[in-house]
Design goal:
- The complex is a heterodimer of chains A (110) and B (114).
- With 110 residues, chain A is mainly β.
- Chain A has a single domain, classed as Immunoglobulin-like.
- Helix content of chain A is 0%, strand content 43%.
- Chain A is built from no helices and 11 strands.
- In chain A, the strands form 3 sheets. In chain A, strands 2, 5, 6, 9, 10 and 11 form a 6-stranded mixed beta sheet that branches.
- In chain A, a hairpin with a 6-residue loop joins strand 5 and strand 6.
- The radius of gyration of chain A is 13 Å and the shape is globular.
- Chain B has 114 residues and is mainly beta.
- Chain B has one domain: Immunoglobulins (Immunoglobulin-like, Sandwich).
- Chain B is built from no helices and 11 strands.
- In chain B, strands 2, 4, 5, 6, 9, 10 and 11 form a 7-stranded mixed beta sheet that branches. In chain B, strands 1-3-8-7 form a 4-stranded antiparallel beta sheet, with no helix packed on it.
- In chain B, a hairpin with a 6-residue loop joins strand 7 and strand 8.
- Classes of the chains: A mainly beta (110), B mainly beta (114).
- The interface between A and B is medium-sized, with 23 and 26 residues.
Amino acid sequence: AQRVTQPEKLLSVFKGAPVELKCNYSYSGSPELFWYVQYSRQRLQLLLRHISRESIKGFTADLNKGETSFHLKKPFAQEEDSAMYYCALVGFQGAQKLVFGQGTRLTINP
Amino acid sequence: GAGVSQTPSNKVTEKGKYVELRCDPISGHTALYWYRQSLGQGPEFLIYFQGTGAADDSGLPNDRFFAVRPEGSVSTLKIQRTERGDSAVYLCASSLPGAADTQYFGPGTRLTVL
C-alpha cells in the first residue's frame, strides 16, 4: 500500500533557526517524492521534487531509500516560510495520482 | 497564462441535495485530477481523466460520486444525495499527458453540507 506519513501536525520555530519537516513513506517500488506548499489564501503549489535535487527558497530534501524518508530542511527559517507543507509521492507503476501526507503547519516566530 | 480554475469557490447545500463542482484546466492539459481534502487532512485522490475518459476512478468513495469530462477540457464532479461527511475542499489539478509529477492545482471548492 502507498502511504505518506508526516508525524508533526504543527511545527513552530524562531526566525533564523534551522527547520526540518519530517516525511516517511511506504511504497513497494521506487516512487517519486515531492514537497508541496500552501501559503495562506493561496493554492497548493509544488515546492520541490527529489529527482531534480534542487534547492528552492533555501529548502532541500534528500531521499533516503533505506529509511524511506524524504525530510525537508532549511538551515535558516524566514517568516515568509510560514505555511502548510505536504509531502507526496507518485508511483512509477502506472499510477497517475499523488498520495499526500496529512501535512505540517509550519509557523516561524519573529 | 491562466491557471486551473474552479467554480464555485464555496458551496453550501442541505443534506440530500445534488451538487455539481466545475473545473477548468490549463489549456492543453489533457490530464485532469480530482482530490478531496477534509479538515486537517492532506488531499486524497478521487479520479483521474486522460482526455475524455476516466482512466482511474479508484478514489471515488461510493456511487453517489460521479465525474465527467465530455469534451476533454472542463470537468464536472457530481455528488448525489449529499451527506454531512461530504463536506470538504474539492481540489482539481491538471497536467500534460503522462506528467503526473507536474500537477497544477486549482483554488478548490469548499463544500459544506448542512
